[in-house]
Amino acid sequence: MRSLIDASEVMTSRQYVHLPTEVLIHIAKFILDDWHNTDPPSFQVTLQRFCAVSRQWYSAGIEFLYYRPQLDEGNSFLLFTNTVCPPLRSRARKVDLGSLVQVLNLASLVHHSSNSLTARLLGRVKKNLKTFAAPRISFSINSLAPLAKCKELSYLCLDLVAEPIPLATLKKSISGLDKLQSLKLSSSMFITDECSTEDWPPNLRYLQVGGKFDVEKMSSFRWPRNLGGLTFCGCENLDTPILEEILINEQLCTTLSHLNIHRLNREMFEEGPSEILSALIALQSLRIPIDLLYDLLILPAFDPMGSPMSIRELELTEPYDDDFSTVIDPDDLCKALKMNLSRVCYLSISPGCLKIIPEASHAKIDKWVWKNIDKCPEEELDSLFDLGFDVMDKEPGC
C-alpha cells in the first residue's frame, strides 16, 4: 500500500468513463478476488488507482480497498495506521475506514509497530474484523482487551507472538468471541489448565498448539467442547509419553476428526513408537511427516483383527528426521492400504516425499486407494475433500 486516499484526494477531472455503480462494484470485487493469482499480489495498487478515478469510482471501490490491506511493503503500514487510527488531535474523517477492514495480516511485520499501536489498531478495526494474524513483537497482553471486542472474528492466528501470554488470560479475553472457529496459539505458550476456570469460545472447531505442555494436566485437559481439528506445530516437548498423555484425553479420543503433526516440533518419538492412533475412534484425516508412518505404527502393515483404522484421508509431508532417506517399498504401502489403512480414500504426498515414494510407484498406489473408494459408503465419500492418490504442489505449512 504505497499511499492511502480519501474522497477529498481523488482526481477532479471530468474526463473519465461513467459506468453504472453496480458494474463498478463487480469490477472492484473481481480485482480483490484475484489477489492470490499474482506474485507478488498487486491488487492493492490496482484498487488504489481504481478509487482515484472519480468520486463515483471511489465510493464503489473503497470497501474493497480496505477489505484486506497489504502492509508488507515499504512504509505501507505507517501510511495505513496514520489513516485508520490517526493521532488524537488530527482532523476526524467522515468515513470510519477501520470498519471496512475484514482481514488484517500483521504476521510479516517485525519492528513496524509497538504494543500500544497494535492495541489501538485493533480497537479501530474491531467492528467487522473476521481474520487477524498477530505480529511477532508488538502483540502483548495489552492487545487482549481490544481483541475481545472483535465480535465478528472467526480466525485468530497468534503462532508468531514472542511474548508469553498465560493461557488462562487469553481464554478469558476471547471466551466471548462466539464466531471464532479457528485459533493458532503461540509457540511461547505454556499449555496448562492450572488455576483456569475460563471457557473456550463456544464455536471453536480448530486449534493449533505449540510451546510447552504441562504433562500432569494433559489427560484431563479441557479442550474446546466442539474441537474437531488439532495441529501440533512448534511444540517443545512432544515425545512419545507426552503425545500419548495429550491424545488419550477422553474428549479427544471420541471427537477428534482431523490431526496434523507438523515436522516443526522438538523431541518427537525419542522414546519409541506409539499405538495412540488406535484410541482416536473418530479420526478421519491425518497429516504427518512421512517417517512418522513407522513411529505411529502405520507401517509395516498389520492385520487389524477387528476394524481397520478410521482414517479416510492421509497426507504425508517431508520427513521430520532430516537424515531419513529410506525408500518405502510400494508393496508395503499397498499392503497397508489393503489391511490397516483399508478405509483410506485419499492419499496425498508432498514434494519432499518424492524420493521416498518414487513416481514409478504412484499408479500402483492409486489403484489400491481406488479399491478402498469402491467399498466406501457414498455418504462418506461426499464429505471428503478429494479422492485417489495425489502429489501436493508444495510443502504445507502449519
Provide a short characterization of the protein structure.
The protein has about 400 residues and is an alpha/beta fold. The chain is built from 14 helices and twelve strands. It has helices at about 20-35, 45-50, 55-65, 75-85, 115-125, 145, 165-175, 215-220, 240-245, 250-255, 290-295, 330-340, 360-375, 380, and strands spanning about 105, 130-135, 155, 180-185, 190, 205-215, 230-235, 260, 285-290, 315, 345-350, 390.
Describe this structure as you would to a colleague.
This protein is of the alpha/beta class and 398 residues long. Helix 1 packs parallel to helix 3. The relative contact order is 0.06. It has helices at residues 21-33, 43-51, 55-67, 76-84, 115-125, 144-147, 167-174, 215-218, 240-247, 250-255, 292-295, 330-338, 362-375, 378-381, and strands at 103-105, 131-133, 155-157, 182-184, 190-191, 206-213, 229-235, 258-261, 285-289, 313-317, 346-349, 388-391. Mean pLDDT is 91; it is low at 1-13. Strands 1, 2, 3, 4, 5, 6, 7, 8, 9, 10, 11 and 12 form a 12-stranded parallel beta sheet that branches. Helix 6 (144-147) links the parallel strand 2 (131-133) and strand 3 (155-157). The radius of gyration is 24 Å and the shape is globular.
Low-pLDDT sequence parts: 1-13
One letter per element, helices H and strands E, the order comes to: HHHHEHEHEHEEEHEHHEEHEHEHHE
Helix content: 25-40%
Beta-strand content estimate: 5-15%
State the major sheet.
12 strands, parallel
Overall geometric form? globular
List keywords for this structure.
398 residues, alpha/beta, 14 helices, 29% helix, 13% strand, globular
